[in-house]
Every structure is written in structure tokens, then in C-alpha cells.
């Protein structure tokens, strides 16, 4: 029983869900201008967890054929046979239905519709249409990962705002420089599975250049929030400092791609740094609301 429960949990990709929730709570705090109603926060985070879990299980179900071909994913429960495809499909559907009803009945209608859009974009847009067809898969498919800020904002206010759009764009532009370094590490896996991630179809120099472009746009979006919200100078200093640090890592990666004698590419260092960047930026968003100036 413990093994079976663990297998079902593994299908939901808990580590990805953690990162999505990191962006939701600070967004809700900013939308409220303080800490929102405790139970609203709980309901939103539980609903978001259910929705993300549903999308991830659908992803595992659809991608089980290519997961079998990649070392990184060949131990997933659908590949090893711990969970049957039929059971996974039922599980994914049940999670999705419960998530949508949860938001509709316990939060509000706008957040329920946005949750439906997030699941559809990830399952249909990214997994079924984009992933196996274009190197831009993670760019546009990454919109699903931006939706938690819209869901969190709408849960508090029942609507959206330009501040929510700025937060959305931060995550949108952050996604490629976050995911492409991981794709570099597992380039052979993706190539074997026929998935045209950008690092599979382009050299490291092109990947690094594009990462720099997206990082610049990400920094600009984070600074736009400083003006739109508005935030205090503390947030501004943190956003500039974090952005400069992450941009420097991407530039260093480009230099090493151009001249391998300068050392290892350091793709995974950039990957881990991207998680630190997003986490600290959204912590700054939450903290800034409570500053007395």
C-alpha cells in the first residue's frame, strides 16, 4: 500500500508543485495588500495543488512512451508498471474535476476558469501539441506555469490587474532560462526520445544567447512591477540585485560556450540559480507589502 501511494504521488511531480505554490502565496499577499484571509489561502493552495497534480499526471500518461526512452524518466511509475495507464488516466481526471469544483464552490468562478485554462494549456497545448513538434515548446507551454499568479490574484480580488500581468511575465520570461540548462544536461535523453528541445537542435552558444534575451525581459518585467504595484525601494533593490546576479551567470555560460577553455559550461549551476532567483524575488514581493515605508 505504501509503495502504491508513493507511486501515485510520484506521478504528480511534487517538486514542480512546490515551485508553483511559491509564486501563489506572495501574489495573494500583494493582491490583498496584506495577509489574505487564512482559509482563502488554504483553499487556494489546496486547489492549486490538486490542479497542478492533475496536469502532471496527464503529462505522465501522455508521455509514457518517451519517458521509457529517457534515463531521467524511465523509473516513473507508468514506465515501470507500478501504475497502469488506465489507473493514471482516472487519477488525473479525478484530480482535475475535484480541483475545478473546489475553486468554483469554495473560492470563485474566475479562479476556477483560470485553473481550467492552466490545465488545458499544459496538457493540450504543451504536452500534446508543442512538446514533440517545436523547439519553442517550453516557451509557449510555459504559460501554464505562469497561471498560478493569475489564479492567486483572482482568488483574492475576483479579477486581474496590470500588477498580476507583470508577475505573469516574470515567470513567462524566466521559464526558458530555467528549463533550457536542464535540457542541456539531458540533451541525449531528449534527442533519443525525439523531443526537439532547443539544446537538441541548436548549439550551446545559441541557447545561451537566447537565455540572456529572456533574462533581460524577465528583469524588465520584475522592474515594471516596482512601478505598477507600486513596491518600495527595498523590492527594487532586491529585483535589480537578483536580476544582475542571474544575468551574470547566463553571460558567463555564454562565454564558456564560446570558449570551452574557460571551464565547464555550468548549465546546472544556472538551473539551480534560476530556482533561487524566483523564490527570493517572490519572497521580496511578499515581504515588501508589510514594510512600513
Automatic annotation (TrEMBL):
Name of the molecule in the record: Protoheme IX farnesyltransferase
Pathway of action: Porphyrin-containing compound metabolism; heme O biosynthesis; heme O from protoheme: step 1/1
Role this protein plays: Converts heme B (protoheme IX) to heme O by substitution of the vinyl group on carbon 2 of heme B porphyrin ring with a hydroxyethyl farnesyl side group.
Catalysed reactions, as listed in the record: heme b + (2E,6E)-farnesyl diphosphate + H2O = Fe(II)-heme o + diphosphate
Protein location: Cell membrane
Transmembrane segments: 16-35, 41-62, 83-105, 111-130, 137-156, 162-180, 211-229, 235-254, 266-291
Other facts: Carbon 2 of the heme B porphyrin ring is defined according to the Fischer nomenclature.
Taxonomic superkingdom: Bacteria
Membrane topology of the entry: Multi-pass membrane protein
First-listed, main subcellular location of the protein, grouped into a coarse class: membrane
Entry EC no(s): 2.5.1.141
Amino acid at each position: 500500500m505504501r509503495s502504491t501511494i508513493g507511486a501515485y504521488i510520484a506521478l504528480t511531480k511534487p517538486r514542480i508543485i512546490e515551485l508553483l505554490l511559491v509564486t501563489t502565496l506572495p501574489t495573494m499577499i500583494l493582491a490583498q495588500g496584506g495577509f489574505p484571509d487564512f482559509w482563502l489561502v488554504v483553499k487556494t493552495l489546496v486547489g492549486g495543488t490538486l490542479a497542478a497534480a492533475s496536469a502532471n499526471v496527464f503529462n505522465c500518461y501522455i508521455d509514457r512512451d518517451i519517458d521509457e526512452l529517457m534515463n531521467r524518466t524511465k523509473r516513473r511509475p507508468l514506465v515501470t508498471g507500478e501504475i497502469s495507464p488506465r489507473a493514471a488516466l482516472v487519477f488525473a481526471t479525478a484530480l482535475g474535476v475535484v480541483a475545478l469544483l473546489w475553486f468554483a464552490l469554495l473560492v470563485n468562478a474566475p479562479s476556477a476558469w483560470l485553473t481550467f485554462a492552466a490545465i488545458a494549456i499544459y496538457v493540450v497545448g504543451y504536452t500534446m501539441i508543442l512538446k514533440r513538434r517545436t523547439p519553442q515548446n517550453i516557451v509557449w507551454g510555459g504559460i501554464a506555469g505562469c497561471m498560478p499568479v493569475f489564479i492567486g490574484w483572482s482568488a483574492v480580488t475576483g479579477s486581474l490587474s496590470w500588477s498580476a500581468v507583470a508577475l505573469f511575465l516574470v515567470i513567462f520570461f524566466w521559464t526558458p532560462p530555467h528549463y533550457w540548462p536542464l535540457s542541456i544536461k539531458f540533451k541525449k535523453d531528449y534527442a533519443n526520445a525525439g523531443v526537439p528541445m532547443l539544446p537538441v537542435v541548436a548549439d550551446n552558444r545559441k541557447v545561451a544567447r537566447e537565455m540572456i534575451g529572456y533574462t533581460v525581459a524577465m528583469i524588465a518585467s520584475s522592474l515594471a512591477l516596482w512601478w505598477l504595484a507600486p513596491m518600495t525601494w527595498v523590492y527594487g533593490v532586491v529585483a535589480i540585485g537578483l536580476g544582475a546576479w542571474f544575468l551574470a551567470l547566463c553571460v558567463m555560460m555564454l562565454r564558456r560556450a564560446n570558449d570551452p577553455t574557460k571551464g565547464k559550461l555550468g548549465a546546472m549551476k544556472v538551473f539551480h540559480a534560476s530556482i533561487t532567483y524566483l523564490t527570493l524575488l517572490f519572497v521580496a514581493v511578499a515581504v515588501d507589502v508589510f514594510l512600513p515605508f
